[in-house]
Amino acid sequence: MGRRRVEIKRIEDKNSRQVTFCKRRNGLMEKARQLSVLCGSSVALIIVSSTGKLYSFSSGDSMAKILNHYYETQNVDDRRTVDLAEKTPDYLTNKELLEIVQCKLEEAKGDNVSIESLISIEEQLKKALSVTRARKTKLTMELVKTLQDKEKLLNEENKVLASQIREMKKLLETEDERAMSPENSSSNNPPETLRLLK
């Protein structure tokens, strides 16, 4: 008997959601490692949990090298996208394109549409999709960079707080040692004792 099929939707129970996240995150990281080993490729994986915690995995090259390579190739794609946008400033919005496609498809049922118009609409859709993907990728990478910067700041703040805690502990220990040292206690006077009851 095989495993039951899991419906892909948000898990409402917080504990189950956290357990599923951990298991699937680890599974995804293992698959990324296997892909790197089997194919000799450089793999970078960045996961941001619902609580904002950042998990990353890189194999082959370092994460920085992989991201730099990605940024370089992305910049080339962005330039191509900008060139496309400059060459075709009269493109319709995605919503308008979808409405036109729906109308053309309805017309196609009656065979009143030309192949040239369908090809033109297909090209516009491909270019609009390319622009949308480039924008989404750019925003995602900006978010990742922001989160990495925030993580660095928090780590630095954590180090400062840890050093302050160590200094406070040392200060308290030295004060305790001074209080317990024989120099501070009067060695001339014998310690007072309580009289015993008879």
Spans where pLDDT lies below 50 across 5 or more residues: none
Provide the CATH top-level class of the domain at 13-60. Answer: Alpha Beta
Can you write the helix and strand succession as a string?
Answer: HEEHHH
Helix content: 55-70%
Query: What is the total tally of β strands?
Result: 2
Instruction: Give the biggest sheet.
Output: 2 strands, antiparallel
Outline the fold blueprint.
Layout: H1 14-39, E1 43-48, E2 54-59, H2 63-87, H3 94-109, H4 115-180
Antiparallel strand pairs: 1-2
Domain MADS-box: 1-61
Region (Disordered): 174-198
Coiled coil: 144-174
Explain the overall architecture:
This protein is mainly alpha-helical and 198 residues long. Helix content is 67%, strand content 6%. It has four helices and two strands; from the N terminus they run αββααα. It has helices at residues 14-39, 63-87, 94-109, 115-180, and strands spanning 43-48, 54-59. Strands 1-2 form a two-stranded antiparallel ribbon. Helix 2 (63-87) packs antiparallel against helix 4 (115-180) and helix 3 (94-109) runs antiparallel to helix 4 (115-180). The longest helix is centred in the C-terminal third of the chain and has 66 residues, at 115-180. Keywords: Coiled coil, DNA-binding, Membrane, Nucleus, Transcription, Transcription regulation, Transmembrane, Transmembrane helix. The chain crosses the membrane at residues 35-55. Residues 1-61 form the MADS-box domain. It is found in: Nucleus.
Question: Which structural traits does this protein have?
Answer:
mainly alpha, 198 residues, 67% helix, Protein MADS AFFECTING FLOWERING 5-like, single chain, elongated, TF_MADSbox, two-stranded antiparallel sheet, membrane, SRF-like, coiled coil, DNA-binding
